[in-house]
Amino acid sequence: MNQDYVLYLQQCLRNLGFGSDLSLNAALEQEMTKGNNEFQLQTQDSFDEGSVIKATLYFWKASDNPNFVLTKYHATLCYNENPKLNKSHTFWIYQLLGVTFKEAFNLLQGRAVLKTLFTPDQEMYDAWIKLDFSKKIAYHHYSVRQFKGPCEYDLEKILRTYPDPGTSSITPKGELDPKPGGRQPASGDL
Known about the structure:
The protein is of the alpha+beta class and 190 residues long. It has helices at 3-15, 23-32, 101-108, 155-160, 167-170; strands spanning 38-48, 51-60, 69-79, 87-92, 113-118, 124-137, 141-148. The chain has one domain (3-151).
């Protein structure tokens, strides 16, 4: 087993947001030594108090290649108080790029995330993606909507329409970054 490649895969897992589960690295190394052409790893994390996101990571290698690749992961957002709200989706990994674990959490909660995507000709482009919970496709997964092109949305202009003098002390200019899809703290009366 190539130890440099193991370290490379571990770094890729950290880049995709799976770095908080330290046992994942040991499990990855153990599974790679078993001689199988594919294996799965389980992990979970919590990004808020009311839910847990779980993931099954799928690794595969061709019979003529000694190196494994992470091809996809299946994420399930589990709500502690109301399991009827639980949602699952499979996120595909392309050239070790894809939706991070935190972005999967945000998408499964209904928020949009800005991602760099690829055309069939391998050209990169930026687009907001959002899961469409009203449309299920094969294997009970949700359709993914893309919003690309020039965006007419000016976040600072919208925030200025709300009278809240305390906002600047909560989120000073430059700290407000919606790209990962996370919620931003704000206060005020509408």
